[in-house]
């Protein structure tokens, strides 16, 4: 019998939640236009919408908040964060941002020229938006196994080196400002990248004079998978693996709301001195002074402490294995999910869950909405709605993966909560043929999954 690690913490503060009656949830979902992003938090029983900014901070982080230096420039909390980023990630320079997409905006504006191509291991929504908004074309170069939810490749986040070389030969290295390497890959199901692959990508890129930038949002989870799955690293600490990972990048964007374990904030890190000077000039326009970049001093202090806590093995083992606990229950009941399970979420395969719905009837969106109606559990769509429309044709993009993400916040829920979620999903699976497709009532032009509204077909 498989065992799972107990919570490596004690609970000091609790937040009451309520479970509404089914009729109330049905009315709330209809009012929200069958978009789980538009639900009121107070109407949600177990909130698995995202792990971004939903972390429960530690006592040390809350204590750090009390010594926030809110000086407009030169805050001591910035100096602390700067030291910690250099120690744990190894980059020479760092500029804070209000969150990860602020870092994506800065990097894209400074690195991309119209007509460029940015290859990456599967797109992420805001990342691709910033790349395309600045004139680039995104090219997916992830290994083929990543698009197959049932394939159990241990590192489905890996870049296919042949695809990368083909793109270089096709458009020329001068048209590729950088490679965007996500560690882990969210839309593939939270899948990790091997250190062997990171090193190979770095070597190929630098051979052609191309920079490599990591989307480091869940890099600690990636380091855990390396320790568990890559033979040469079983005796390495998470901190040691993390430093080696970052040595194969020229810089990184970071949403601190995930693996830095805070509720707001991010940063852009790099080694290039000239790029750093340009970033410091541009951050003033969009974020704030280079020594706060849209963050309060207290939040920078909490982030610095969170980075040090994130590499604790007891923490990251429980974090990832709690996700596996939920996944194992669903697999035992025959529920189709992305395998192997990732580090931050369980992804339901809506194609196999709802085979009676065609993709243009938005099965993942419909499944997420119905899961809330039946149980009060909030999840989110990661499929055709998130993929958006092709910029040239205006037609819906049709990703191979049509998923519903059950995202586990850090240090928030217990195994008992996972039991409730598992039971709700299993019961819904048993009546899956009753779930109806959806159509748009309102479709925003950009990042439509956040605010679109739907109704049943």
UniProtKB/TrEMBL annotation:
It is an enzyme of class 4 (lyase). Its cofactor is pyridoxal 5'-phosphate. SUPFAM superfamilies: PLP-dependent transferases. It catalyses: L-tyrosine + H2O = phenol + pyruvate + NH4(+). The modification N6-(pyridoxal phosphate)lysine is found at residue 258. Keywords: Lyase, Pyridoxal phosphate. GO terms for biological process: tyrosine metabolic process. One of its GO terms (molecular function) is tyrosine phenol-lyase activity. Its EC number is 4.1.99.2. Homotetramer. PANTHER family: BETA-ELIMINATING LYASE-LIKE PROTEIN-RELATED (PTHR32325), TRYPTOPHANASE (PTHR32325:SF4). Belongs to the beta-eliminating lyase family. This is Tyrosine phenol-lyase. The lineage of its organism: Bacteria, Bacillati, Bacillota, Clostridia, Eubacteriales. The gene is tpl.
């Amino acid at each position: 019998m498989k065992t799972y690690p107990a919570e490596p913490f004690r609970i000091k503060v609790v937040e009451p939640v309520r479970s509404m009656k089914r009729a109330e949830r049905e009315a709330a979902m209809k009012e929200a236009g069958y978009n789980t992003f538009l639900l009121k938090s107070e109407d949600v029983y177990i909130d698995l919408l995202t792990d971004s900014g939903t972390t429960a901070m530690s006592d040390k982080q809350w204590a750090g908040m009390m010594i926030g230096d809110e000086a407009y420039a030169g805050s001591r909390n910035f100096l602390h964060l700067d030291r910690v980023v250099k120690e744990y990630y190894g980059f020479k320079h760092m500029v804070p941002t209000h969150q990860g997409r602020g870092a994506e905006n800065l990097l894209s504006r400074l690195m991309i020229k119209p007509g460029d191509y940015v290859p990456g291991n599967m797109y992420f929504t805001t990342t691709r938006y910033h790349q395309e908004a600045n004139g680039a074309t995104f090219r997916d170069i992830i290994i083929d196994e990543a698009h197959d939810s049932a394939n159990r490749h241990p590192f489905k986040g890996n870049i296919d080196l042949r695809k990368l070389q083909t793109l270089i030969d096709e458009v020329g290295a001068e048209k590729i400002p950088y490679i965007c390497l996500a560690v882990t890959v969210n839309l593939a199901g939270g899948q990790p990248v091997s250190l062997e692959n990171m090193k190979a990508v770095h070597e190929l890129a630098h051979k052609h004079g191309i920079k490599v930038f990591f989307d480091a949002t869940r890099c600690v989870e990636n380091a855990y998978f390396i320790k568990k799955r890559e033979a040469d690293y079983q005796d390495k600490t998470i901190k040691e693996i993390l430093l080696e990972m970052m040595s194969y990048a020229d810089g990184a964007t970071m949403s601190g709301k995930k693996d830095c374990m805070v509720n707001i904030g991010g940063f852009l890190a790099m080694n290039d001195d000239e790029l750093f000077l340009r970033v410091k000039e541009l951050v003033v326009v969009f974020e704030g002074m280079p020594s706060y970049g849209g963050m309060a001093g207290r939040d920078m202090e909490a982030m610095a402490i969170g980075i040090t806590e994130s590499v604790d093995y007891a923490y990251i083992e429980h974090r990832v294995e709690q996700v596996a606990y939920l996944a194992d229950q669903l697999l035992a009941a025959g529920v189709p999910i992305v395998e192997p399970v990732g580090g931050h979420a369980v992804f339901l395969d809506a194609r196999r869950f709802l085979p009676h719905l065609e993709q243009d009837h938005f099965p993942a969106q419909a499944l997420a909405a119905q899961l809330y109606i039946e149980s009060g559990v909030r999840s989110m769509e990661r499929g055709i709605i998130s993929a958006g429309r092709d910029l040239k044709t205006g037609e819906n993009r049709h990703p191979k993966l049509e998923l519903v993400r059950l995202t586990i916040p850090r240090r928030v829920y217990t195994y008992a909560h996972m039991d409730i979620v598992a039971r709700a999903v299993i019961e819904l699976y048993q009546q899956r043929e009753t779930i109806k497709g959806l159509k748009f009532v309102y479709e925003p032009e950009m990042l439509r999954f956040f605010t679109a509204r739907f109704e049943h077909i």
